[in-house]
Amino acid sequence: MCGLASVALSAQVDNVSRLFGTFAALRQVSADLETGKCYVLIGENGAGKSTLLRILAGLLRPSFGTVKLFGNFDPEQARERIGYMSHAPMLYDELTGVENLRYFASLYAGRACLDPAEALRQVGLDPSLNRTLGQYSQGMRQRTSLARVLLPQPELLLLDEPFSNMDVESVSQMVALLSGFRHQNRTIVITTHQREAAAPIADYVLALKAGRVASFEPGSPSL
Asked: What pTM, to 2 d.p., does this model score?
Protein backbone atom coordinates (compact mmCIF):
# COMPACT_ATOMS: atom_id res chain seq x y z
CA MET A 1 0.00 0.00 0.00
CA CYS A 2 1.39 3.41 -0.96
CA GLY A 3 2.70 5.62 1.82
CA LEU A 4 3.46 2.82 4.28
CA ALA A 5 7.07 2.10 5.24
CA SER A 6 8.16 -1.49 4.79
CA VAL A 7 8.79 -3.44 7.98
CA ALA A 8 12.27 -4.92 8.44
CA LEU A 9 12.08 -8.66 9.08
CA SER A 10 14.70 -10.82 10.78
CA ALA A 11 12.95 -14.07 9.92
CA GLN A 12 10.06 -15.38 7.85
CA VAL A 13 8.62 -18.82 8.57
CA ASP A 14 6.29 -20.02 5.83
CA ASN A 15 4.12 -23.13 6.23
CA VAL A 16 6.87 -25.04 8.06
CA SER A 17 6.42 -28.63 9.17
CA ARG A 18 9.03 -30.81 10.82
CA LEU A 19 8.74 -34.59 10.99
CA PHE A 20 10.70 -37.00 13.17
CA GLY A 21 9.81 -40.31 11.59
CA THR A 22 6.01 -40.35 11.60
CA PHE A 23 5.77 -37.77 14.41
CA ALA A 24 5.04 -34.19 13.36
CA ALA A 25 6.75 -31.84 15.82
CA LEU A 26 5.62 -28.81 13.78
CA ARG A 27 2.61 -28.58 11.49
CA GLN A 28 2.31 -25.79 8.91
CA VAL A 29 3.69 -23.01 11.12
CA SER A 30 3.92 -19.52 9.63
CA ALA A 31 5.19 -16.32 11.28
CA ASP A 32 7.04 -13.12 10.36
CA LEU A 33 9.50 -11.81 12.96
CA GLU A 34 10.08 -8.06 12.89
CA THR A 35 13.50 -6.62 13.66
CA GLY A 36 13.76 -5.14 17.16
CA LYS A 37 10.80 -7.06 18.60
CA CYS A 38 10.56 -9.75 21.27
CA TYR A 39 8.58 -12.91 20.52
CA VAL A 40 7.59 -15.27 23.31
CA LEU A 41 6.80 -18.88 22.36
CA ILE A 42 4.55 -20.69 24.82
CA GLY A 43 2.97 -24.11 24.93
CA GLU A 44 3.08 -27.39 26.80
CA ASN A 45 6.00 -29.81 26.61
CA GLY A 46 6.07 -31.33 23.14
CA ALA A 47 4.20 -28.42 21.58
CA GLY A 48 7.11 -27.70 19.20
CA LYS A 49 8.68 -24.62 20.79
CA SER A 50 12.27 -25.87 20.92
CA THR A 51 11.96 -27.45 17.47
CA LEU A 52 10.93 -24.12 15.97
CA LEU A 53 13.79 -22.37 17.78
CA ARG A 54 16.31 -24.91 16.45
CA ILE A 55 14.98 -24.43 12.92
CA LEU A 56 15.41 -20.66 13.25
CA ALA A 57 18.96 -21.28 14.51
CA GLY A 58 19.74 -23.38 11.43
CA LEU A 59 20.33 -26.49 13.56
CA LEU A 60 17.37 -28.31 11.98
CA ARG A 61 15.92 -28.11 8.49
CA PRO A 62 12.16 -28.06 7.89
CA SER A 63 10.66 -31.21 6.41
CA PHE A 64 8.28 -28.97 4.47
CA GLY A 65 7.94 -25.21 4.04
CA THR A 66 10.61 -22.51 4.04
CA VAL A 67 12.51 -20.30 6.46
CA LYS A 68 14.05 -17.01 5.39
CA LEU A 69 16.61 -15.37 7.69
CA PHE A 70 17.60 -11.77 7.02
CA GLY A 71 16.20 -12.16 3.50
CA ASN A 72 18.19 -15.31 2.73
CA PHE A 73 16.91 -18.87 2.33
CA ASP A 74 20.34 -20.38 3.09
CA PRO A 75 20.77 -20.65 6.89
CA GLU A 76 24.55 -20.78 6.50
CA GLN A 77 24.50 -17.24 5.14
CA ALA A 78 22.78 -15.98 8.29
CA ARG A 79 24.53 -18.09 10.92
CA GLU A 80 26.96 -15.37 12.01
CA ARG A 81 24.03 -13.03 12.73
CA ILE A 82 22.29 -15.47 15.08
CA GLY A 83 22.91 -16.27 18.75
CA TYR A 84 21.37 -19.46 20.16
CA MET A 85 21.10 -20.25 23.87
CA SER A 86 20.02 -23.85 24.39
CA HIS A 87 18.19 -25.19 27.43
CA ALA A 88 21.44 -26.94 28.44
CA PRO A 89 24.05 -24.41 29.71
CA MET A 90 26.93 -25.53 27.40
CA LEU A 91 29.48 -24.22 29.90
CA TYR A 92 32.34 -25.77 31.88
CA ASP A 93 31.78 -26.04 35.63
CA GLU A 94 35.51 -26.24 36.43
CA LEU A 95 36.22 -22.84 34.82
CA THR A 96 35.37 -19.32 35.99
CA GLY A 97 32.95 -17.20 34.01
CA VAL A 98 35.67 -15.25 32.22
CA GLU A 99 37.65 -18.44 31.51
CA ASN A 100 34.57 -19.98 29.93
CA LEU A 101 34.06 -16.96 27.72
CA ARG A 102 37.71 -16.76 26.71
CA TYR A 103 37.48 -20.34 25.50
CA PHE A 104 34.30 -19.73 23.49
CA ALA A 105 35.67 -16.47 22.07
CA SER A 106 38.64 -18.48 20.72
CA LEU A 107 36.17 -20.48 18.60
CA TYR A 108 35.16 -17.35 16.67
CA ALA A 109 38.48 -16.84 14.92
CA GLY A 110 38.38 -13.98 12.44
CA ARG A 111 35.14 -12.50 13.79
CA ALA A 112 34.70 -9.28 15.71
CA CYS A 113 33.69 -10.44 19.19
CA LEU A 114 33.03 -8.69 22.44
CA ASP A 115 35.83 -8.89 24.95
CA PRO A 116 34.85 -11.71 27.40
CA ALA A 117 35.02 -9.32 30.36
CA GLU A 118 32.72 -6.86 28.56
CA ALA A 119 30.24 -9.61 27.70
CA LEU A 120 30.03 -10.51 31.39
CA ARG A 121 29.57 -6.88 32.37
CA GLN A 122 26.72 -6.56 29.86
CA VAL A 123 24.81 -9.27 31.72
CA GLY A 124 25.59 -7.79 35.13
CA LEU A 125 28.38 -10.13 36.22
CA ASP A 126 31.80 -9.25 37.62
CA PRO A 127 34.50 -10.65 35.28
CA SER A 128 37.04 -10.64 38.13
CA LEU A 129 34.97 -13.05 40.23
CA ASN A 130 37.36 -15.86 41.14
CA ARG A 131 34.77 -18.60 41.46
CA THR A 132 34.21 -21.60 39.21
CA LEU A 133 30.92 -21.94 37.40
CA GLY A 134 30.06 -24.95 39.55
CA GLN A 135 29.79 -22.51 42.47
CA TYR A 136 27.46 -20.09 40.65
CA SER A 137 23.78 -19.71 41.44
CA GLN A 138 21.35 -20.76 38.72
CA GLY A 139 20.68 -17.11 37.88
CA MET A 140 24.41 -16.44 37.46
CA ARG A 141 24.79 -19.53 35.28
CA GLN A 142 21.97 -18.40 33.01
CA ARG A 143 23.47 -14.94 32.70
CA THR A 144 26.85 -16.47 31.86
CA SER A 145 25.13 -18.54 29.16
CA LEU A 146 23.62 -15.35 27.79
CA ALA A 147 27.05 -13.67 27.84
CA ARG A 148 28.41 -16.58 25.78
CA VAL A 149 25.65 -16.00 23.21
CA LEU A 150 26.45 -12.28 23.09
CA LEU A 151 30.16 -12.76 22.30
CA PRO A 152 29.78 -12.63 18.47
CA GLN A 153 27.30 -9.70 18.78
CA PRO A 154 24.30 -11.40 17.11
CA GLU A 155 21.31 -9.54 15.72
CA LEU A 156 18.83 -12.38 16.36
CA LEU A 157 18.79 -13.88 19.87
CA LEU A 158 17.14 -17.32 20.22
CA LEU A 159 16.76 -18.27 23.89
CA ASP A 160 15.40 -21.66 24.96
CA GLU A 161 13.91 -21.46 28.48
CA PRO A 162 16.21 -18.67 29.74
CA PHE A 163 14.27 -18.42 33.04
CA SER A 164 14.56 -22.12 33.88
CA ASN A 165 15.05 -22.87 37.62
CA MET A 166 15.64 -19.21 38.45
CA ASP A 167 14.24 -17.40 41.48
CA VAL A 168 11.97 -14.39 41.11
CA GLU A 169 14.75 -11.82 41.54
CA SER A 170 16.99 -13.54 38.97
CA VAL A 171 14.12 -13.71 36.47
CA SER A 172 13.49 -10.00 36.95
CA GLN A 173 17.18 -9.24 36.33
CA MET A 174 17.20 -11.37 33.17
CA VAL A 175 14.06 -9.70 31.82
CA ALA A 176 15.61 -6.26 32.40
CA LEU A 177 18.75 -7.34 30.53
CA LEU A 178 16.74 -8.65 27.58
CA SER A 179 14.74 -5.45 27.46
CA GLY A 180 17.98 -3.50 26.98
CA PHE A 181 19.04 -5.78 24.11
CA ARG A 182 15.65 -5.38 22.43
CA HIS A 183 16.07 -1.62 22.52
CA GLN A 184 19.38 -2.10 20.68
CA ASN A 185 17.25 -3.22 17.69
CA ARG A 186 17.97 -6.89 18.25
CA THR A 187 15.22 -9.42 17.62
CA ILE A 188 14.60 -11.81 20.53
CA VAL A 189 12.74 -15.12 20.47
CA ILE A 190 12.15 -16.79 23.84
CA THR A 191 10.62 -20.16 24.66
CA THR A 192 9.21 -20.36 28.16
CA HIS A 193 6.68 -22.03 30.41
CA GLN A 194 6.54 -18.76 32.38
CA ARG A 195 4.48 -16.44 30.21
CA GLU A 196 4.03 -13.97 33.07
CA ALA A 197 7.79 -13.66 33.52
CA ALA A 198 8.32 -12.65 29.89
CA ALA A 199 5.22 -10.43 29.68
CA PRO A 200 7.12 -7.14 30.37
CA ILE A 201 9.13 -7.53 27.13
CA ALA A 202 6.72 -9.53 24.94
CA ASP A 203 5.82 -7.63 21.79
CA TYR A 204 4.11 -10.78 20.50
CA VAL A 205 3.09 -14.08 22.06
CA LEU A 206 2.96 -17.16 19.83
CA ALA A 207 1.19 -20.15 21.37
CA LEU A 208 1.88 -23.60 19.94
CA LYS A 209 -0.31 -26.63 20.54
CA ALA A 210 0.58 -30.07 19.15
CA GLY A 211 2.92 -28.43 16.66
CA ARG A 212 0.39 -25.95 15.29
CA VAL A 213 -0.01 -22.21 15.90
CA ALA A 214 -2.91 -21.94 18.34
CA SER A 215 -2.66 -18.13 18.55
CA PHE A 216 -0.31 -15.32 17.54
CA GLU A 217 -1.21 -12.16 19.42
CA PRO A 218 0.35 -8.81 20.32
CA GLY A 219 1.79 -8.58 23.81
CA SER A 220 1.81 -5.58 26.13
CA PRO A 221 5.47 -4.81 26.85
CA SER A 222 6.10 -2.49 29.80
CA LEU A 223 9.91 -2.33 29.58
From this structure: 0.92
